[in-house]
Amino acid sequence: MTQQVSVAPTVGEELPPFVRETGFAAWNRYAAVNDEFVPIHMDDEAGKAAGYPTAFGMGNLQWSYLHILVRQWLAGRGRIVRLSCQFRNPNLKGQTVTARGVVESVSEEGGVISAELRIWTETQDGAQLAPGTATVVFD
């Protein structure tokens, strides 16, 4: 008899963090893929004119860090059903950005296990950049 291993996470489980150093090199690669060469993301003077101390990263890059965080944690065990975040603070040049997450709830309906996650990105100083939520289901 083969023993089945549970794929269900536990409430309070922390997702392994996803960390990136940010700045022009990362933003330029993201801009190249998304055709998003916007001056506030490429030029310090444009960032300053917009009221920030430097150029700043794209909001959707924060979203992509959160998506990578959840996808790597799932490691093929399931899929992302929904992922959302709010852009609360800018990602400035030279920051270390860490995507983090924690399992808030787990449920089962009709044999399908799902989990609600609280996710966010933060700077090396702990300032939240993009808090959000995700729903995942396990196959």
TrEMBL record:
This is Acyl dehydratase. Residues 27-108 form the MaoC-like domain. InterPro entries: HotDog_dom_sf (IPR029069), MaoC-like_dom (IPR002539). It comes from Cryptosporangium aurantiacum. It comes from the Bacteria. Coiled coil: none annotated. Belongs to the enoyl-CoA hydratase/isomerase family.
